[in-house]
Write a structure and sequence with these properties.
alpha+beta, Alpha-Beta Plaits, Chitinase A, domain 3, Trigger factor, domain 2, 3 domains, 5-stranded antiparallel beta sheet, 14 helices, 11 strands, about 50% helix, elongated
Length: about 450
């Protein structure tokens, strides 16, 4: 077998594979000899079928099968030995008049080669947010706690500080939903005045447009889709079944013990410190995710390299269960190009910075995730053996291994970005973080 490569350009090559008779003849002969011993052909005793008849009946199929096996094995070995970094899979070039009666066979494959490029983490500055819980947020959380643990006092008439329970209805949209909300969710004086002074048992007629401060409340209370909630402008009725006011819970040791365990917190200042710690621990996750996204987007935008686009479109066209049209392949390539670019950038970062995901790292990572999940259900101190057993079960599933490996790799890349990227650190409140990053959309 002889394999040669012709580089068309930096991103495309053609590999030629020549297979001689001596490469396959012994294997084909052995298989046909075995067939001769077991062949069951009418008119001949088992094991006494003439070799000529065996070759005539089975020879071509065995030849094709063995040559294809040799071809795949030889090509795969060649790609490994030559250390070729290819994209997609080799594409066979079609030969219109291929002759299986010849003794020597020649095959050609097109290759799409991965581009050579470098990644500079220092090139573009990225903001790293340090999100802090300010007094406004902490005081708001204290107020929410007092409401949550406070006492409901029934009312006959709705006031500005009421919490109402009732039924939203609209026949055309098939809305018939129970809802409970405080009137601070209602938007504007005009809407608020419709509620204030209303007796329990009465029914209001309301416009959904501009009814709540947050459009998401339409989703929660009317059970409409996010798509329908956007700009929803219909008339609904709301029958008030209950009106309550909430007497705030006292900030005393009994409440502190309910929240944090007996004796762990003894003052309002300590409560606020706990709230601040918990909030900022959660903010770190949001800040890290934003940093990961921003660095990733910046790398995709600013790391310039070409791809073997024509080859990849051709490969996409034939890679699936059903062959795509050129137009469909073009569309799929457009959708996947950004992801492919980042995958190549990620591979380069992993290689250049020797980022590794070892099995022991993966096992420890999975144990920490299991421990966090168990804590959510009140199991605060699982034994090491229990964690080991659950981790072993999870890591026996290849799909789970791939998923956890991707998560751990993202974590390691985040650590790399924090260490080596060009970061501008900025301290913000959560409210300002949302405004700056999401444009007040949350």
């Amino acid at each position: 077998m002889n394999i040669t490569r012709e580089n068309i350009d930096a991103l495309n090559a053609v590999v030629k594979v020549n297979i001689e008779k001596e490469d396959y003849n012994d294997k084909v002969t052995k298989i046909l000899t075995d067939y001769k011993k077991t062949a069951n052909i009418p008119g001949f005793r088992k094991g006494h079928v003439p070799m000529g008849l065996v070759k005539k009946q089975y020879g071509k199929a065995v030849l094709v099968d063995e040559v294809n096996k040799l071809l795949q094995e030889g090509l795969n070995k060649y790609l490994v030995e030559e250390k070729l970094d290819i994209l997609g899979n080799p594409l066979p070039r079609m030969q219109e008049e291929f002759d299986w009666d010849a003794e020597t066979f020649s095959f050609e494959f097109e290759l799409g080669l991965a581009p050579e490029f470098s990644v500079d983490l220092k090139e573009n500055a990225v903001t790293q947010y340090n999100i802090v819980a300010d007094d406004k947020m902490i005081d708001g959380q204290v107020e929410n706690i007092r409401k949550q643990y406070g006492k409901l006092i029934s009312q006959d008439e709705v006031t500005e500080v009421s919490e109402v329970t009732g039924v939203f209805s609209n026949e055309e949209k098939e809305i018939e939903e129970n809802a409970t909300f405080s009137l601070d969710k209602i938007k504007g004086k005009r809407n608020l005045n419709k509620f204030v002074g209303t007796k329990v048992g009465e029914t209001l007629t309301l416009k959904t447009k501009g009814l709540f401060n947050e459009d998401n409340d339409l989703v929660n209370f009317l059970k409409v889709s996010n798509e329908d909630a956007n700009g929803l402008d219909i008339e609904v009725t709301f029958k008030i079944n209950e009106a309550n006011t909430r007497e705030l819970a006292e900030l005393n040791q009994e409440l502190f013990d309910k929240l944090f365990g007996e004796g762990n917190v003894t003052s309002l200042e300590e409560v606020k410190e706990k709230i601040k710690e918990d909030a900022e621990r959660q903010f770190v996750q949001q800040s890290d995710q934003r940093l990961l996204n921003d660095v990733t987007e910046g790398l995709i935008e600013n790391t310039k390299f070409d791809l073997p686009a024509d080859f990849l479109k051709k490969w996409i066209q034939s890679a699936g269960e059903q062959e795509l049209t050129p137009e469909q392949a073009e569309e799929e390539y457009t959708k996947s190009e950004k992801g492919l670019r980042y995958q190549l950038i990620q591979d380069r970062l992993v290689k250049d910075n020797e980022v590794q995901v070892q099995f022991e790292d993966l096992k420890e990572f999975s144990k920490q995730m299991i421990k966090a999940q168990m804590a959510q259900f009140g199991q605060m101190n699982p034994s090491d053996q229990e964690l080991e057993d659950i981790a072993a079960r999870i890591l026996s599933n290849q799909e789970e291994v791939r998923r956890l490996t991707d998560q751990l790799l993202s974590q390691k890349l985040l650590e790399l970005f924090k260490e080596k990227a060009n970061l501008k650190k900025k301290e913000v409140t959560y409210e300002n973080f949302v405004k700056e990053v999401y444009g007040d959309s949350q």
